[in-house]
Amino acid sequence: MLTTWHNKELPAVLEALRTTENGLSANEAVRRLKEDGFNALPEAKPDGLAAIFLRQFRSPLIYILLAASGIVFLMHEYIDGSIILAVLLFNAIVGTIQEGKAQNTLLALKKFVETTATVLRDGRELTIPDREVVRGDVLVLQEGEKIPADARVIATNNLKVDEASLTGESEPVSKNPEAIQKDALATPEQRNMVFKGSNILAGNGRAVVVATGQNTIIGKIAVQISTIDSEIPLKANIRYLSRAIISVVAAVSAFLFVLGLIRGQDVVTIFTTVVSLAVSIIPEGLPIVITLVLATGVWRMSKRNALIKKLQAVEALGQARVIAVDKTGTITKNELVVREVYTDGKTFKIGGVGYEPKGPVELGGKMVDAANHPELLLAGKVAALCAGARVTYVEAEGRWGVSGDPTEAAIRVLGEKVGFMKDDLMRESPFVAELPFDYKLKYHATVYKVAGKNFLTVEGAPEAVLALCTQIRRDGESRPMRKQDKEELGAVLIQMSGRGLRVVAGAVRDLPAGRQGKPSALTPDAVHGLTFVSFFSMQDALRPEVAEAMERATAAGIKVVMITGDHKLTARAIAKDAGIWKEGDKVYTGAEIDEMSDTELAAKLEGVSVFARVTPEHKLRIVNAYKKRGEIIAMTGDGVNDAPPLVAADLGVAMGKIGTEVAKEAADIILLDDNFGSIVSAVEEGRSIYKTIKKVILYLFSTSLGEVLVITGALLLGYPLPILAAQIIWLNFVTDGFLDVALAMEPKEEGLLSSAFKKPNKYIVDGLMARRMVFMALPMALGTLFLFQGYFENDLAKAWTISLTTLAVFQWFNAWNCRSESKSIFQMDFFSNKFLLGATTLVIFLQILAVYTPFLQSILRTVPLSLSEWLMIIPVAASIVVVEEVRKFFYRKRLDRNAYAAADVHVALQ
Amino acid sequence: MTTTLFLASIWGPLILAVGVGVFVSRSYYVRIYRELEKDALSVLTFGMVSMAAGIIQVGMHNVWGNLPEVIVSLLGWGLLIKGTTFIVAPKLVDMSGDWAADSKLISVVGGFMLLIGAYLTYISYFA
Fold first, then answer.
1. pLDDT value at residue A517
2. Which of A834, A852, A866 sits opposite B103 (nearest CB)?
3. How far is it, in rounded angstroms, from Cα A746 to Cα A699?
4. How far is B54 from B79, CA to CA, in rounded Å?
5. At what angle do helices A736-744 and A796-817 cross, to 10 degrees?
6. Which helix (H) or strand (E) is A844 found in, with range?
7. Does B25 lie at the interface with A, CB-CB under 8 angstroms?
């Protein structure tokens, strides 16, 4: 079978595919569909509920708890063993529900984007689902459609295709059926081929399908991305943390086992103690509460139009220190807008947003009325007559849309801004003939009957149009173009291009009557001796939210870099407007990146804010270079070629509207509104989630540490075990369970984007957290042991109840301590987290049940407490607030000192 | 236990009725609270009556042996603390009232009352 199609003549192509220009027969199509399979991209099969449920158990912490449960069962402690199993089961159910929900949302999104194709079968046109297109089918290509498979072009009529999603090139590509006599040819150069996933911007044609599904270029990339692996930071952090916990469990258990034996305790008691200890160190509530925090974040992000595919991705975005954004669609609207019109020696500035056909006109810094400037009116008329694209208001989306070439659309919109509606013009001046844009000629020409004369208008690349001009419009008249005129136009052109603007020239000519009797008679021979009218300089419109989002990103210490296939100057101009490029920043091109090794590239990334003329391979290298520097990088993308870097980045962000299926499949987050502002908001949400997770971990670990110290202290002091396994599970799961979930609902702190994000260490637990844990655990241990020692000799059951209740009350207070690392609990709004208020009330009620109801008394081995005992426990437990308040006081002092010092340095520098 | 059952037989139906009332006529309860906090004399009178009733009940019943005893004892202490707060710190009443009336918390409080009221009614009349 042929592997290259662009270099074969059409008969050879049709023969090799065993088809004709009239397409396949219906039977043959069915046979080929069976043989080759559906024309669909390979995608990971979604996991069933059972698989998701079982996945929840894949964690070292869960393995330990399962082992602990097994040991407890072997010791005939069936209630304790059942409690541990129930905890694990509950955790798995919550996780399954959350993951299942996220998966369903994604499947719904995929169904929404299914499309159809028009093919010839038995010589008749048929509309079929994309997935049923087979090799040898003849596609009928029409403007506005998406190409369903890779195909060799048979016939074209001004066919222009947007291949940006595949090649990164934003310029439309003209297609023609001629064979190209070169064996190896890059995709963008294969002008007689069309590729799956690209869009038809203008014209129509026919093409025979040469590859479907994963044999297409898109399909091959989709297969390639499945081999790249990357891990979200939180997942890695939890893994490290789990390993640390396991090491601590092993070390502490071994230490206590040996200590117990030395102290002459019997093996069963020591064993029970060790199991209790293992259970106490492991924060059972952690997996549930992290899932809940992330799920809440996912829900909040969905309200901000960001669909999170992987729960942990939401937190990872908060850690992002570099965001690499694609220019088109993210920074710019992918809508060209004419910004300047140079005509008759003057430069008019044109305002307006996107394709909306209105906007102010300025000359020399003052607003002017276009009607008073005949030279601008002529330029506008040329624009309206020559531009072929259509611009319409899309009611459903509430925006102006375009069909056809974006450059022509921009010129047409300019015509309307100046006052020329194409439909009205065509009623007055009937269409006569047209010479469509050709990539060899580099211009587009039309002829209209204006006031009885054939009026030729031409628009195209400045160098091509100027070469055909012999005259120029000056002071309302045409006169021969002189050397000075050419020099002046050349200077204007260089100045406009230098600012990154795309320039199109417009020219006119009155044709002698009878030169083109039929519309098809306009040939390139007739296009000469033109009168130069104007330069139209245009720019891809910036998205309006970019400026504010950039300010927020900069304040948050996030480096935003722009990646684009555009020319260096264009890229820099747009990046400057967007606030991404600043004086002194570097711009690297693909060619410059090619000259560097990966290590060199990583070393030279400092101060780079724009990457221009880059290919998909460069994007992947850029992502890897940032990762090599230890940065957490989020990468946005929409095209098929973006898929490998999206997967390789710590966090891939795909565009929901303009993004291809492959990009969405590869990404961790999909922005449904393609809005750069949504990424920055998502960063804020991610930081909030990270802070909340830290609060919850601090709370849970301080409890665990407190319990470990209580047990170890008792052992060292020769006391009996002060707290039993079932009681530990009650504290870790019931008391902590409600309080940590409520803590997870803590409202977002202020100023999350006001400073750079402190890079977390791999265990999440930083120095401050570790110190706070000790400050919290010490009063817990000392207070509990102090009250326990007063009772255990006379009434062990009462002593157990006292230590259980004391630890529970410590936790009630400590949850409130954990709300902030610096603010006093008395400075915070007591009512701002209603969940915490409710949860505190609930756990107080549950603790009363634990102490006073026979059922829970039998499980937890508790006895009733008197009021005087409660009045002794509560002040002892409240000591944890006093200790933490003292620490917070000194911490606030230190923060203030640092802030003053920073302000002094700032003033000194100024 | 006799005193506990006697007090539970009064508290139970009373709390149960208020619990049902919170759900059936929520806006009415919010209005009562709003009007009460506007009238300083009513707050003081309400505080004095509550405090006196609280002292009497705590004097009569301060037993912490099982769940019914604890609930009844807590109700007495609650009454005493509430009455004292109304007299000593009426501003705190304003604050908590605003918050409870504006949030969904009143439903949660109503739910708790239903639960406790039903439990006390059950043990005093049906157990």
1. 47
2. A834
3. 13
4. 5
5. 0
6. helix A834-852
7. no
A589: which strand partners? A612
In angstroms, the Cα distances linking B51 to B45, B57, B61, B91 are 10, 10, 15, 17
Report the predicted TM-score, pTM, of the whole model to 2 decimal places.
0.69
Amino acid in the structure at residue A194: V
Q: Do B67 and A834 touch (CB under 8 A)?
A: no
- Taking an 8 Å cut-off on Cβ atoms, the answer to whether B70 and A831 are in contact is no
Q: Active site includes A594?
A: no
Candidates A841, A845, A866; nearest CB to B64: A866
Q: Catalytic one among A137, A162, A326, A344?
A: A326
CA distance A686 to A767: 21
Answer for the pair A851, B69: CB distance below 8 angstroms, yes or no.
Answer: no
Question: Residue A298 in 3-state DSSP?
Answer: helix
Strands, E assignment, A163-192: 173-174
CA angle A33, A35, A39 (to 5 degrees): 45
CA of A382: how far to CAs of A126, A154, A492, A643, in Å? 40, 34, 20, 42
Q: Is the ipTM of this complex over 0.90?
A: no
B67-76: buried (b, 16+ CB within 10 Å) or exposed (e) per residue? bbbbbbbbbb
Residue pair A655/A636 in contact by the 8 Å Cβ criterion: yes
Contact B62 A867 (CB under 8 A): yes
Annotate A745-781 with three-state secondary structure: CCCCCCCCCCCCCCCCCCCCCCHHHHHHHHHHHHHHH
Closest chain B residue to A846, measured at CA? B67
- Other residues' Cβ atoms within 10 Å of the Cβ of residue A528: 12
How many Cβ atoms sit within 10 Å of the Cβ of residue A77?
Answer: 19
Task: Compute the distance between CA of residue A732 and CA of residue A737 in angstroms, rounded to an integer.
Answer: 7
Contact yes or no for B51/B87 (Cβ under 8 A): yes
Cα–Cα dist A691/A253, whole Å: 31
Pairing of strands A477-480, A469-474: antiparallel
Is A867 within 8 Å of B112 when comparing Cβ atoms? no
Q: Could you tell me the two tokens for A57?
A: 């158990």
Tokens for A19, please give them. 């088809």
Residues of chain A with pLDDT under 70: 1-3, 42-45, 98-99, 101-115, 165, 167-171, 222-236, 284-285, 287-288, 310-312, 314-315, 396-397, 439, 513-521, 759-763, 902-910
Mapping DSSP to helix (H, G, I), strand (E, B) and coil, where does residue A116 land? strand
